[in-house]
Amino acid sequence: MPKLDDRLKAVAVQIRSSVHADIGSDHGHLIKALLTAGRIQRGIAIEVNQRPFENSRSTLTGLNADVRLADGLAGLNPGEADSLSICGMGGELIARILQSYPDRVPPDLVLQPNRCPEAVRRWALGSGYHLVDEQLVIGRLRYQILRFQRNHACPDPAYASVDRDAALLFGPLLIRRWEPQFRDVLLDEYRYLNDFDRRTNESQHRLDALANLLQSEPPHSNGLDG
């Protein structure tokens, strides 16, 4: 897929639909890659600012894609898209965008918050979207790629048999898989927070959740002593 870094490649492989909308598409590279790879038939790039709008329009010229100047889901009609991506924003902002026009949110979502993924997970739990996949990508930052599907029929099984608080902060599916890279990320954050003499309530809360997770990890690993 052209012109995509590892983060957006991880997003792209989660997407396959007829009509896909990307909010905050910047240069339109994700939509172009999806169209070129045949993963979508039509794309909609939505930008709130003029310069990124012009960048995306230039990238997507000649392709089966619309580029719209609008504020988030204000640029999408109800039922118009089958899937939606929002990448490179804070989790609180992503949640606000999704909350603003709930009738315009498609059934399949791929979201990549740069911070506070727990805000996105809380939105999904309260809005009838199940978490069906989580990926951790290590690049310039540590990125979580979250995929959700609409399902009002039952509680989200991703959160069954895991600590809800830790799952919201760090990801229930990532915790279940407990891959070495994920464990190393948790341990790095634990050590970083533990070095502070003074902590905010939020950072102390994260430290406590990390300590509980790492102390209960599989017995073959080194835990907090590693």
From TrEMBL:
<dbReference type="InterPro" id="IPR006901">
    <property type="entry name" value="TrmK"/>
</dbReference>
<dbReference type="GO" id="GO:0160105">
    <property type="term" value="F:tRNA (adenine(22)-N1)-methyltransferase activity"/>
</dbReference>
<keyword id="KW-0489">Methyltransferase</keyword>
<dbReference type="GO" id="GO:0032259">
    <property type="term" value="P:methylation"/>
</dbReference>
<keyword id="KW-0808">Transferase</keyword>
<dbReference type="InterPro" id="IPR029063">
    <property type="entry name" value="SAM-dependent_MTases_sf"/>
</dbReference>
<protein>
    <submittedName>
        <fullName>tRNA (Adenine(22)-N(1))-methyltransferase</fullName>
        <ecNumber>2.1.1.217</ecNumber>
    </submittedName>
</protein>
<dbReference type="Pfam" id="PF04816">
    <property type="entry name" value="TrmK"/>
</dbReference>
